[in-house]
Specification:
mainly alpha
Length: 65
């Protein structure tokens, strides 16, 4: 059986090893807190169009007379 040694009295190398064992894995999740962007604020990267020509058929009529 190993003798108990307080954490503070362990060598730095042993402290790092124990701390690494206690740490949890985030499994690819970024722990940084995020907040959604303000929908009312102007964003020059977002391009909005009032009329989407791709979703609605567009016809152009020319009147000849």
């Amino acid at each position: 059986m190993e003798k108990f040694v307080p954490f503070e009295k362990l060598s730095k190398k042993e402290q790092k090893k124990l701390s690494a064992l206690k740490r949890r894995d985030w499994n690819g999740l970024n722990p940084v807190t995020r907040k959604s962007e303000n929908p009312k604020a102007y964003n020059r990267k977002r391009h909005r169009t009032d009329f989407d020509f791709d979703s609605v058929p567009f016809f152009f009529f020319i009147r000849l007379s």
